[in-house]
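Quick start: what a row looks like.
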Amino acid sequence: MIERVDGQHVRVSGEMTIAHARELSTALDAYLGAPELVVDLGAVSEVDSSGLAVMLGWMRNARAGTCRLRFTSIPQGLNTLASLYGVTDLLVH
């Protein structure tokens, strides 16, 4: 689930797994109109590699709309997957 915290911050909660990937992949689009968006992942309870794919898709969509996207409180599981796939630098800037 994605909820707006304020104008430039959203919070993702629950699972970022294959069961929710399709829903999550487009759920952030509604918030990409801001010049910058901070996505707090601290309330994510479970992740798998599809969660990482969702994040990369969010980044692609944000760039297409000229929105700067930043992630905070990235769960250790997502950090581990990002490191395994060699994309850590893409998620943290």
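That is the whole record. The domain at 2-86 is CATH 3.30.750.24 (Transcription Regulator spoIIAA). The chain has four helices and four strands.
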